[in-house]
Design a protein that fits this description.
It is built from eight helices and 26 strands. It has 444 residues and is of the alpha+beta class. It has four domains: 121 residues, no CATH class; 110 residues, no CATH class; 76 residues, Resuscitation-promoting factor rpfb (Resuscitation-promoting factor rpfb fold, Single Sheet), CATH 2.20.230; 112 residues, Glucose Permease (Domain IIA). The strands form six sheets. Strands 15, 18, 19, 20, 21, 22, 23, 24, 25 and 26 form a ten-stranded antiparallel β-sheet that branches. Strands 7-4-5-8 form a four-stranded mixed β-sheet. Strands 6-9-12-13 form a four-stranded antiparallel β-sheet, with helices on one face. Keywords: Hydrolase, Membrane, Signal, Transmembrane, Transmembrane helix. This is M23 family metallopeptidase.
Length: 444
């Protein structure tokens, strides 16, 4: 590592060495000058290594700065270097680096809180080699090395493609222009790989990661403070494309055929439809695990669908299954069936209404007879409602329709009265199925 600022500090210390050392260096003895030069080189290397070791420990120090009270005072050859958290991993790392340069470190634990005025900034701002993860050529965050930056981006891709369907071919890339560049930045701006992954996936955790106050990602979040959803989304977007082959169902079509023998509005299925099947090769596109497109690359029909055939009624003169009352008054004065102790059979039902009450067709149909009936019904209307059903309206005072006329449900066909064999004004309503009188209450 190249610690530019640290080396300058070491050189400045050497330039202000003790007077006796400076005087010795001024003596003209060549051997002494050679020894002094060697000594100066060793001191320069030792001083540089001390700075390197201490700053190397700062990586871990920053991760523990808010959660460690027990500290270590670190010395090199009796000279105080600084404070680090009393953490085994941190101290082991420092000793391992020091041993590689034959430098002896001494550490003495102190059990007190670190003063709030301790100059952490001087340590945290020391420049060190790092790697910037960039978006559109602008740094987003810094991590420990180019190798770690590649690992961070790979883990982000894996996390944002976990829900993507597997297929024959799969390509994964960032939507943005993402790059990696070697940088030299202050230690406080460098994230460990795990923290870098966490920040890229969950930017809302920005304030939970130490040392990020002036990082590029912090600035990016500050610029989007008015966008509430921004902090909920990953800082990077991953596009995945996968090619899959699927067998799918093909829907059948419904064909309608007009049928004059069916009541208007009614339908009858005469041939059921059957689904077909096809094999499709589809390229599916996902953004952060959510499918955004599906493009069919090829399609092969395995079985053709079979159309469903439905007959649709067009005859307005045939009943549609729903019946209504012929009058607004529903008072029955004589029901259907035997009466007078079984001496007489009543083929319909009498509805008590005053003369002149409007009478309506109880369903669609065709008028068979309209006018006077000599069989005791007086003025009547007989309607063929289709499907073997006939309706009869008797004792009317006035008839509004004629034979052969198509009538619709609810249409006015006449007015009530007391014509024919009637003892008073009423409507005789009768229903016949294939010529036989049946219970009329089932047809109102």
């Amino acid at each position: 590592m190249k610690w530019t600022a640290a080396l300058r500090a070491v050189k400045q210390k050497l330039a202000t060495a003790r007077p006796e050392q400076k005087a010795k260096r001024m003596q003209p003895n060549p051997t002494l000058r050679a020894n002094t030069g060697a000594y100066r080189g060793r001191m320069l290397l030792a001083g540089a290594m001390s700075a390197i070791i201490f700053v190397g420990g700062a990586f871990g120090m920053l991760r523990h700065i808010h959660r460690s009270d027990a500290m270590l005072q670190v010395y090199q050859n009796g000279h105080y270097i600084g404070l680090v958290p009393n953490d085994h991993d941190i101290y082991t790392r420092m000793q391992r680096v020091a041993a590689g340069y034959n430098i002896a470190l001494q550490a003495f634990p102190i059990h007190t809180d670190v003063s709030t005025t301790y100059p952490w900034q001087k340590v945290a701002s020391l420049p060190t080699a790092a790697a910037a993860i960039e978006v559109n050529h602008r740094p987003l965050l810094y991590t420990t090395s180019v190798h770690d930056a590649n690992r961070v981006l790979q883990r982000v891709k894996q996390s944002l493609t976990a829900n993507v369907q597997q297929g024959q071919q799969k390509t994964v890339s960032f939507v943005e222009h993402v790059g990696i560049r070697a940088e030299t930045v202050g230690v406080k701006n460098i994230l460990e790989p795990d923290d870098a992954v966490d920040l890229l996936l969950h930017p809302a955790k920005q304030n939970q990661i130490a040392g990020r106050a002036t990082s590029p990602s912090a600035q990016l979040l500050q610029q989007n403070t008015n966008q509430a959803k921004f902090a909920q989304k990953p800082l990077l977007s991953v596009r995945s494309q996968v090619t899959v082959t699927e067998t799918k169902s093909c829907p059948y079509h419904v064909k309608y055929v007009n049928d004059a023998s069916l009541a208007k509005g009614s339908e009858k299925v005469v041939a059921k439809g059957k689904m077909g099947t096809k094999k499709e090769t589809v390229r599916q596109t996902y953004i952060n695990g959510q499918q955004t497109a599906a493009d069919v690359l090829s399609s092969v029909t395995l079985a053709k669908p079979v159309d469903e055939i439905v007959e649709r009624g067009t005859n307005p003169g045939i009943e549609d299954g729903d019946w209504i009352w012929p009058t607004d008054i529903h008072t029955i004065t004589s029901p259907f069936g035997w009466r007078f102790g079984g001496a007489e059979f009543h083929p319909g039902m009498d509805i008590g209404v005053p003369t002149g009450t409007p009478i309506h067709a109880t369903n669609n149909g065709t008028v068979i007879s309209a006018g006077w009936n000599s069989g005791g019904y007086g003025n009547w209307v007989e309607i063929d409602n289709g499907n073997g059903i006939t309706t009869v309206f008797g004792h009317m005072s006035h008839v509004e329709v004629h034979s052969g006329e198509l009538v619709s449900k609810g249409q006015l066909i006449g007015e009530s009265g007391s014509t024919g064999d009637a003892t008073g004004p009423h409507l005789h309503y009768e229903v016949r199925l294939n010529g036989t009188p049946v219970q009329p209450m089932n047809y109102v």
